[in-house]
């Protein structure tokens, strides 16, 4: 009797398992154990930020240096011309001393000296203004190229922001340099995000078109 009950019970269990009602019961999958909590990551990876030393680029920009050297030679030539004119005017003033004040000859020569002095002053001011304007245009042209090169490099390398910084060491004997280093906006940066050498290579290696390309640590 006991064996029959056991067989009946087993048959009933098999029938229950094969029944549609039991088969439709959803089986919950085994959920994996939750992973260990990870520290939050920065929203903007460090690779999306870079720095560039514009002053360093100006100092080492081949064409900018050539333009400045050429302009320096022109300024020296102009200064030599002004010095020669000064000597000529000085000679006229010495000649003026040979005339008696109040005489027609004295007044005539005095007028020539005054005109020469006036023309010298005007010419000196005009030449100074011309050189300053030309220098400003060269700076603007090169800085525009730097901006385009930085923009091109940033787009090519997925950089969202490029900060300007001064990488020159602080001169302990220069008060302005000391104060400037204290107030600089960037206190620390990873040398790997300094794109200055890459931008300089772009500017010196090839012309930068209207659609501006460069990361090695600067040496």
Description:
With 219 residues, the chain is mostly helical. The chain has a single domain (46-205), classed as Protein Binding, DinI Protein, Chain A. 61% of the residues lie in helices and 4% in strands. The protein contains 7 helices and 2 strands; from the N terminus they run H-H-E-H-H-H-E-H-H. It has helices at 2-18, 20-23, 54-60, 62-96, 104-156, 175-182, 196-205, and strands at 49-52, 161-164. It has a two-stranded parallel ribbon. Helix 3 (54-60) runs parallel beside helix 7 (196-205), helix 4 runs antiparallel to helix 5 (104-156) and helix 5 (104-156) crosses helix 7 (196-205). It is elongated. The model is unreliable at 1-28, 38-44 and 207-219 (pLDDT under 50).
- Structural class of the helix and strand makeup? mainly alpha
The whole-number mean of residue pLDDT values reads: 79
Order of helices and strands: HHEHHHEHH
What is the helical fraction, as a range of percent?
Answer: 55-70%
Tell me the β content: under 5%
Shape: elongated
The CATH superfamily label reads Skp domain
C-alpha Rg (nearest Å): 41 Å
Name the poorly predicted regions: 1-28, 38-44, 207-219
Total discrete domains: 1
- CATH class division: Alpha Beta
CATH topology name, in short, is Protein Binding, DinI Protein, Chain A
Beta strand count: 2
Count of helical stretches:
7
Q: Ends: how far apart?
A: 97 Å
CATH architecture: 2-Layer Sandwich
The spatial strand order of the largest sheet comes to: 1-2
Largest sheet: 2 strands, parallel
